[in-house]
Amino acid sequence: MAYRINTPLRCPSDSLLISPIHYRQSLRAHNLFPFSFPPAKISYSITRRRSSLSVRSQMATQDKSVSENRMLVFVPPHPLIKHWVSVLRNEHTPCAIFRNAMAELGRLLMYEASRDWLPIITGEIQSPMGVAPVEFIDPREPVAVIPILRAGLALAEHASSILPALKTYHLGISRNEETLQPTVYLNKLPESFPEGSRVFVIDPMLATGGTIVAALDLIKERGVDNKHIKVVSAVAAPPALQKLSDKFPGLHVYTGTIDPTVNEKGFIIPGLGDAGDRSFGT
């Protein structure tokens, strides 16, 4: 059953390590079907019907399709992910609810992205009824979470509830509205990341790809390999995915949905508008 919301709820401007085979089996078991993109050979066949989107790409059904030489894009088909994306798309969603929806979507996407990826220690522990084998997230190897300011703050809000041991580094990047070129205005990244560091880069909108490429360049300069980086976004579009595929083979992207196009102003269509403005009301 579908409902149409007619009440114009506006927000005031001053408000707010398992084997690769087991990994692939896990993806199939949880319906995390990845789109596999060979570098410089990404292609899309997009059909829009009643706001639906069909993306044709090679499915990772064989061992060779999950490769370090390919970028993988995951669109988890969880109904809650679809729900929160829908809330974000609604132009009448007020800021407080929009920000909460962004945070909930980020929680779900980070949960999926951290599957079979976090450092684990094993042992035994005494339960009230006996000795039990246990697994814990290894706190000696904290995962880095890097939200791209400012909208990334909302998407990464629940990161600490998903990842028991993490470090957060803020990275501020603005985009020139005329040239669409990125400018770094805040960089709190360390001079270098420890070897083997796992890094989540949180950027709600992957539109033209300028911002996320600039961010990943800075992270890679500090010693992080592509396969140790996962990008989490609310909405992604072909231009950004093409740039990432060309430049960062082995990268994994987790997104709530893939939209078909970007307009001349660099906004994803249909998208959800300016994620920063709608999250914070400014």
Give a verbal description of the structure.
The protein has 282 residues and is α/β, with parallel strands linked by helices. The protein has 8 helices and 16 strands. It has helices spanning 20-29, 79-89, 95-113, 151-155, 159-162, 210-220, 238-247, 275-280, and strands at 34-37, 46-49, 52-55, 71-74, 120-127, 130-137, 143-149, 166-168, 171-175, 182-187, 199-202, 205-206, 229-236, 252-258, 261-262, 268-269. Helix 2 (79-89) packs antiparallel against helix 3 (95-113). The two termini are 34 Å apart. Mean pLDDT is 78; it is low at 1-33 and 37-66.
- Whole-number average pLDDT? 78
Number of strands: 16
Strand percent estimate: 25-35%
| Terminus-to-terminus distance | 34 Å
The radius of gyration over CA amounts to: 19 Å
Instruction: Output the number of helix runs.
Output: 8
Kindly name the structural category: alpha/beta
Summarize the structure.
This protein has 282 residues and is an alpha/beta fold. The chain is 27% helix and 28% strand.
Keywords:
282 residues, alpha/beta, 10-stranded mixed sheet, two-stranded antiparallel ribbon, 8 helices, globular
Helices and strands, with pairings:
Layout: H1 20-29, E1 34-37, E2 46-49, E3 52-55, E4 71-74, H2 79-89, H3 95-113, E5 120-127, E6 130-137, E7 143-149, H4 151-155, H5 159-162, E8 166-168, E9 171-175, E10 182-187, E11 199-202, E12 205-206, H6 210-220, E13 229-236, H7 238-247, E14 252-258, E15 261-262, E16 268-269, H8 275-280
Parallel strand pairs: 4-14, 7-8, 7-9, 7-11, 11-13, 12-13, 13-14
Antiparallel strand pairs: 1-4, 2-3, 5-6, 9-10, 15-16
